[in-house]
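Hi everyone,

Forwarding the result from last night's run.
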Amino acid sequence: ERIEMRNEPGRALTLHPAGGAPTAAFLFRHCAPLPADPDAQRRLLHERYEGFSWRAPQALEAFDDSDDFYLDVVQRVRTRTWSRGHVVLLGDAASSLTILGEGASMALVGAEALTLALRESADVREALGRYERGLRSRVERAQAGAGLGAAFLVPRTRVALAVRNAAARLMRRV
């Protein structure tokens, strides 16, 4: 079995065998807050996938028959600083990268950087500043690539989708 994916501008449907328990992932661009009510979430998904080709009708039917679903927004909050007083952001709270991974790795890197900074300074605020100065530029470089990852995963336009598909075909040949 393999993962299958179909894209249309601003939305994608991915079918994953998930160890014998098939899973569908509906990925779409959405700028407004998500409704909290599960029935409203179901309606939103149906609205976003109305007219979607391929296997969306079957996936939506299976979705309607299930009471086990999760709908959330992937977003990044940018802060001027990662600490205030003795409180510090660590892991995804400070260095969220992508939905495609690296979060655990960056959390470990951040934990090590914070540990070293605290070990090297008797003043907690100074240590927290050192932790951030040592890690922020690395995180910002990685986050710059995350925007490209989102554009690659769910292109906004038909032209962007065609460019992504052409790039993917070229990568397979390399």
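The longest helix spans residues 124-153.

Cheers,
N.
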